[in-house]
Amino acid sequence: MIESGNYNCYEFYLAATEKYGNYDQAQHMDARITRTEMIRDIEALAAYFTKELGLKRGDAYTIFLPSDIESIVGFYALNKIGVIVNFVHPLLPTEVLMDTIVESKSKGIMILDLLSKDFLTHDKGRDHVDAINRSGLPVLLCHCSDYASPAKKFAAERGEAVLKALVRFKNVTDYKDVMRMYNGRTVPGVVNNFGDVAVYLNGGGTTGKSKTIKLTNKAINENVHMLGYIDHIEAPGEEGEIIILPFFHAFGLVVAMHMTMCNAARLIPLMQFDAKLVVKLYKKNRISGIGGIPNMFKKLYNTPGFDGPHLANTRMMFVGGDDLSPSFLEDFNTMLANNGTEARLRQGYGLTEVGSVCCVNTNWVYKDGSIGKPLEGLRMEIWDDDCKQVPTGEVGEICIAGPTIMEGYLTKDGPKDAGLYYDEEGTAWVRSGDLGYVDEDGFFYFAGRKKRLIIISGYNVYPVDIENLMDTLPFIRESCAVRAEKNGKPLVRLYASLKIKGDEEEYKQTIIETCEKNLSKFSVPREIVFMDELPHTPLEKVDFMKLEKLY
Hints:
The chain has 15 helices and 27 strands. The chain is α/β, with parallel strands linked by helices. The protein has an eight-stranded mixed sheet. It has a seven-stranded mixed sheet with strand order 11-10-12-13-14-15-16, with helices on both faces. Strands 17, 18, 20, 21 and 22 form a five-stranded antiparallel sheet that branches. The relative contact order is 0.09.
């Protein structure tokens, strides 16, 4: 991977891929888009934003789309002209969507026709048309047919014709019309803006209540550059990478999308995670890599057809965003080995505030059960509550410093670098809110969210230890340990879904005996609740906050 230099993200993409010629850059289901076509559309959209909307450096614009080709084109087009992209979760309720638009001072919105209303349940909480019309914002309306193959475009457009009667934005321009009107046109881009904020990302899942994070061009490109050593595409355009993480998520935007684009792989984005579709794409394409969170890989592992010879093409698989149990990791990697690939599912760690990945295992430097070693150029330490480094092996808060960290949280009147901690030497740090420790070999380990820590009689109980142990029991599909109380005293309550139906009282006894043999007495669940399905966040993580509220 090239040096990050003084590029913005679009310049970095152009520079990184210039030597590869005109290969297949992306794929929408079975339709492929070449690098030349991608750049043509990016330039056309940048011209539209400049000429029609008058957008300029420092403005903000909202992309309210699933992970699709239009999202990629929109991101690079806006980045070229120095506009900050406000990436927003496409399933947010209308009120929260409008709050993010106001907070970011967005001057327009890209939206998919299918996401403009809740057409199935008619939920008024997701009827964006009226609210956007009242705001007067210009709308760029996208459709599933925009990049469909000729064989599927006709059928898709017939369905979209029906939607036109229901989706009536006042100040609207059709994406396809922009591509026709501005085909072949270009406008000057902003240069030397590598230090500018490139994106606003919100870590709030579907609530939108958490802080908005500002990432600069430099932070994003540095992250891609630091990860460039992990893999190199051998056949540009032929080797593909399936993108199963959304672009409103730092891992999805920075690593899955931007790094893949800059690495000359053929990018195959999915609008939503579908394990059966991933298997289908694996069998039809030469897939070299894939990244996701633990529950996505668990679903793939249990999906018929995923275990097969097509996995031999894969060189890398990375998992992050949550902890992965050692027992599942061993089972998954045994499956990979049996299919003739040298790739193994490798754990990593990162967060939006540090530009995405900051610590990772590779196929040549790894320790199973760990989250790996920090990327070269980053500092990663374990601190106590007084911001002092703790001894090797002791659990504390994971803290990170380096060129990939955020500029700060977006605030109305606060400082530009809100949310950063400065040490005595003036170095900026991100305090992750995650617990972990480092061993004598420099490998880091994740011990759970700081706010999930359960303290009983002065002892620390880490829910992740309980949940990893549950993965060794054949009848457990998913589990989540939370804090509860009885007679004013704290205890561990375990929620679980079952893989195998059976005598629940016997299952509870097995769970208790297994915990008593392997964990401290304070970590043994005093209450066990079986559910048909545990609640999940839109990123497929178990929603522990919802389970805590059940109590």
